[in-house]
Structures are given as C-alpha cells and as structure tokens.
Design brief:
Radius of gyration of chain B: 23 Å
Oligomer: heterodimer
CATH class of the largest domain in chain A: Mainly Alpha
Largest interface: A-B, 87 and 86 residues
Strand content of chain A: under 5%
CATH architecture of the largest domain in chain A: Orthogonal Bundle
Structural class of chain A: mainly alpha
Strand content of chain B: under 5%
Subcellular location (chain B): Cell membrane
Shape of chain B: globular
CATH class of chain B: Mainly Alpha
CATH topology of chain B: MetI-like fold
Shape of chain A: globular
Helix content of chain A: over 70%
Number of strands of chain B: 0
Radius of gyration of chain A: 24 Å
Protein name (chain B): ABC-type sugar transport system, permease component
Largest sheet of chain B: none
Number of domains of chain A: 2
Number of helices of chain A: 14
Number of strands of chain A: 0
Number of domains of chain B: 1
Mean pLDDT of chain B: 92
Largest sheet of chain A: none
Order of helices and strands of chain B: HHHHHHHHHHHH
CATH superfamily of the largest domain in chain A: MetI-like
CATH superfamily of chain B: MetI-like
Distance between the termini of chain B: 34 Å
Keywords (chain B): Cell membrane, Membrane, Sugar transport, Transmembrane, Transmembrane helix, Transport
Low-confidence stretches of chain B: none
Mean pLDDT of chain A: 93
Main location (chain B): membrane
InterPro entries (chain B): MetI-like (IPR000515), MetI-like_sf (IPR035906), UgpAE/MalFG_permease (IPR050809)
Order of helices and strands of chain A: HHHHHHHHHHHHHH
Distance between the termini of chain A: 36 Å
CATH topology of the largest domain in chain A: MetI-like fold
Number of helices of chain B: 12
Helix content of chain B: over 70%
Chain lengths: 271, 284
C-alpha cells in the first residue's frame, strides 16, 4: 500500500471512531454546563461551565449507597455463580452417565428460555412467601446464570487431563480437595471469563432488580438512575451528570482489564 | 471411578437446585398461568382463551410485528457494521487499530437504561440543535414520531451491539492462516478477491453465530426501549418484552401477559433450532 493511501485510510478510520465516540463526548460536555449552555449549543462547549451538577447528581442519586448496593449484589452473585457452576461442571466432566447428560441438556435447554417468559411466575412465587430483597436477587441471578456458566466451565474441564485427578487420588486426595487445589486453579482463564461475563450482565441489569429490590435503601445504580431521570424533569444537565457518574465505574474497570474483557466476551458467545 | 455417588451429588446438587427453583419451576407454572385469567391475586382456568384473544389483540400484534421488523433491520445493520469494524481493526496492527477496537466496543459496556438516556438526549437536544442550525427538518422531533422513534431504537441498538459482533468476526478472521493470504497475494490476488474468496467463506460460522446472537437479543430488548421511548408515542414503539411487562405489571393481566411470554419463548426456541440445524448441516 502506498504511504499516501495509508495516511488517508488512517484519517478515515479516525473520523469513524470519533463519530462512534461522540455520544460519550456529548454527554460529558453537557454534564459540565448549566441549563442555559445546553440550550445554546448542546453539540460543543459553551462559556457556561460548571462542575456543580456532579455534586447535585451525586446526592440525588444517593450514589454511595446505590454504588455499594450494586457492588454487593454483583460480587455476591458472581461468587455464588462461579462456585456452584464450576463444581457442577467438574462433576459432569468427570462422571459420564445418564444423569450427567440429562443435566447438560437441562443447562442447554434452560438457556433458551427468555427471562420475560418466566418473570411473572418467578415474581409471584417469591412474592407469595414475601421474599423480595437483595438476598433473593442474588439467588435469582444465580439461577439465571448457572446454565451458561456450567457449559463454559465444562468445556474448560474437558481440556484438563484426567491423569491429574488420578495422580491426586493416588496421593490420597479426596475429589473435593483435588477439585479445589488442582483442577479449579488449572482453568483460571475460564474462571476469569465466567466472572467478567456475569459481572457485566448483573451490574448493568435493570429489569430484574426493578421487580425485586425497587425499594428504599436497596436501589442499584440503574434503578436509581431511572427514578432520578424521572425526577429531573428535563433538567438535562443533572441527568447527564448522573449518567457520567453511573458510567464511570464500569469504564474504569474496563480500561484496566481491557484485553481480558474482550477475550471473555468473545469466548462467551463463540462457545 | 474416582468420584463416588454421594460426592457427585454434592458437586451437582446446588446447581440443580438453582436451575429448578429459578427457571424450571417458574417455567412450568408459567405454562399453567397462560391458561388462566390470573390478575396476580385470583385466577381460574380458561383454556386457550388467552391465546385466542392475543391473536386478535391489535396492540399485541402491533408490538409483535414491530419486534420482528426491528430484529430484521438490526440484524442486518449490526452484522454489516460489525464486519466492517472487524476488517478495519484487523487491517493493520498498530496503535490506531488497537484504540479503534476499544472505542468500537465501549458502548457494549453500558447498561440499556443508561444507553437509552444518552440517546434520548442526542435525539432530542442535539438533533434539535442540528435542525435549527442547518434548517434541516429531517432532524426534528425524532422521538415524537412512530417511524423515526423506531429508527432511534435501531440506531441505539446498532451502536451498542456492533462492537460486540465485531469481536466475534475478529476471532474468526484471526483464525485464517496467514500463509493462505500470503500465497494469494503472491499469486496476484487483489484485496477484494482476498475478501470475497478467502475471508468471506471462512467467516460463515461467525456469520451464523452473530446472526442468531443479535436476533435473540433484539427479541428480548426491553431496557433500551423503556429508557429511549417508553413505547411512545401512543404505544407505537412498544416491543414485545415491554408489552409483556406492561400487561403484567401495569394492567395486572398476568395470565394474559404470560401467554404472550410463552409465544416469545416459542419464537426464540424456533430461531435457536434453526441455528442449530444450520450449523450441524455445515459441519456434517
């Protein structure tokens, strides 16, 4: 390729990227303005410049509390999902038999069911015993995620030679010990994938939390953002500052773990 | 056998418990619900009536066709854009293409509610400013009109999903052996020939995966729909998931909404089996 075409292509790609990134830019720019500045020109900076929206939005979103609710729910769910699905997948990969195949197909089958097709009975089931709080949300997140996680782990355990298990058994280790100290650590890349995929899904989820923990003191970030947006009543500067605050945690985490996140997302869909 | 029976059960039972409690039991109850007139408090069995009424309910039919139309359009656009991005970022290996990959993928990190609000601002305030500055009526009132409202959700969804689909295409493009392409170059193949005769055939499985991933996701779309248009104006942009939600939790027709949920399940299942059959056929 000629040098001039190369530069031209680079320039073209740069423009496309800028265009793609512009929605983020426009949100940040207008979060830094007063109401008048947004009205004058929402496309770029104006003289109207302020940081005060962030303070207002932070308080209105009750951000410390919503952040920790999101964090606790995500971390707890991801830990339970990872342990439960890794254990099950290990047994499935080591013991072949009718029960293992039934379970494998149960996982594959339940993955087909859209959440909207079970949300009404699920909610009435938990509502009847008056069990709608952060704990039950963790339980529901787990049930909704184990199927895919088991299938992902199963593939990884299949790739770990059974001679490792046999050697550990000869040394007198029980299956539980073999699993915890030898086999589970051997699939840590897949553990990373399972953690990242589920964490992203649960952190961003709105529909399920809105049905389960839509009450004072339990709000997660997306829930609080939704109600805050209704309250701001077209005061865009506040809504946008809230949006920026809500996006910051996941974007920082992504920039730190970029490569791992992108590999995980690919693995989760191709398998 | 290294794992004894009781040990095996200890490993699998927790997972079985969660799947049964959260998915299988509600699913079975859901099938029963769809044959009742449940309003959340009382219910009695009414046979196929919900389904008969659904197929004459113009709101349901409208949201169903809107979902089908939406899925069709977004599947095509997302795959085109995703493939184009994949080709762009794999064309060279330098700092620019690396940061492009990050930028293209970034919208996928953000949850549907936040995405909806971001684009609500763009379609209202930013578009209004463009309309005023360049006297272009095209940019006026996008979310207050059923057809541009529809395209608004499409644009949002393409922005969100293309980077994700790009990653799938990249993984398949990277799997093409380098020397195949080098050999073609030595034989004097042009860039377009390499694309159509070498890369494209290798991308066929990626295409199936991406196609059905986007299809399944667009059938289940809810949060973006809620935050961007909330189904408005006049329920004209209300897709099937939102229809189910509103019927169940706003109008409290839970049995009736569940019948729509069963129809959604059947659609997703049929689509998945077609995908399975297609990929089996290719492998066999």
């Amino acid at each position: 390729m000629k040098k001039s075409t190369k530069i031209l292509l680079g320039f073209l790609f740069g423009i496309i990227a800028l265009f793609w990134f512009y929605p983020f830019i426009i949100v940040i720019i207008n979060a830094l303005k007063g109401k008048r500045g947004i009205f004058q020109n929402p496309l770029w900076f104006t003289r109207d410049f302020t940081f005060s929206n962030f303070k207002t939005a932070y308080q209105a979103l009750d951000f410390t509390s919503s952040f920790f609710n999101s964090l606790v729910i995500t971390v707890a769910s991801v830990i339970v999902i990872t342990l439960v699905s890794a254990a099950a997948a290990y047994a499935l990969s080591r013991v072949k038999g009718p029960f293992s195949s039934i379970l494998y197909y149960l996982c594959a089958g339940t993955m087909l069911i859209p959440f909207q097709s079970i949300m009404i009975p699920l909610l009435s089931l938990f509502g009847k015993v008056n069990f709608l709080n952060r704990t039950s949300l963790v339980i529901m997140n787990t049930g909704l995620s184990v199927s895919l996680s088991i299938i992902l782990f199963y593939g990884a355990f299949q790739g770990v030679s059974k001679t490792l298990d046999e050697a550990a058994a000869l040394d007198g280790a029980y299956p539980f010990k073999t699993f915890v100290y030898i086999i589970f650590p051997a699939v840590s890349p897949m553990t990373g994938t399972v953690v990242i995929l589920n964490a992203m899904k649960i952190w961003n989820d709105y529909l399920l939390p809105s049905l389960v923990v839509n009450k004072d003191g339990m709000y997660t970030i997306p829930l609080k953002m939704y109600s805050f947006f209704g309250e701001t009543n077209s005061q865009w500067q506040l809504a946008l500052a809230g949006l920026v605050l809500s996006m910051v945690p996941i974007i920082i985490l992504f920039l730190l773990l970029q490569k791992q996140v992108m590999t995980s997302v690919t693995e989760g869909s191709v398998k | 056998m290294l794992i004894k029976k009781h040990q095996y059960l200890a490993f699998v039972l927790p997972a079985v418990f969660f799947i049964l409690l959260i998915i299988v039991v509600p699913f079975l109850i859901g099938i029963y619900y769809s044959f009742t007139d449940s309003n959340g408090l009382r219910s009695s069995f009414i046979g196929w009536k919900n389904f008969e009424v659904l197929f004459q309910d113009s709101t349901f039919l409208q949201s169903f066709w809107l979902t089908v139309k939406f899925s069709f359009v977004s599947v095509i656009l997302i795959n085109l854009v995703g493939l184009a991005f994949a080709l762009i970022v794999t064309s060279h290996n330098n700092r620019l293409t690396k940061s492009l990959r990050t930028i293209f993928f970034m919208p996928n990190l953000i949850g549907g509610i936040l995405l909806g609000f971001i684009w609500q601002f763009i379609f209202t305030s930013a578009f209004q400013a463009i309309a005023a500055a360049f006297h272009l009526d095209f940019f006026k009132g996008w979310l207050s009109n059923p057809s541009t409202g529809f395209w608004g959700i499409v644009i949002l969804f393409v922005w969100q999903m293309s980077g994700y689909i790009m990653l799938i295409y990249i993984s398949f493009l990277n799997a093409i052996p380098k020397n195949t392409i080098q050999a073609a170059v030595l034989d004097g193949a042009k860039a377009t020939q390499i694309f159509f005769f070498i890369k494209l055939p290798q991308l066929a499985p990626a295409f199936t995966i991406s196609l059905f991933l986007t299809l399944a996701n667009s059938f289940k779309l809810y949060e973006q729909n809620l935050a961007l248009t909330n189904g408005g104006p006049y329920r004209s942009t209300e897709m099937i998931s939102m229809y189910i939600y509103n019927t169940a939790f706003v109008n409290f027709q839970q049995g009736y909404a569940q019948a729509a949920g069963i129809i959604l399940f059947l659609c997703v299942t049929i689509v998945s089996f077609i995908q399975l059959a297609l990929s089996r056929k290719r492998e066999g």
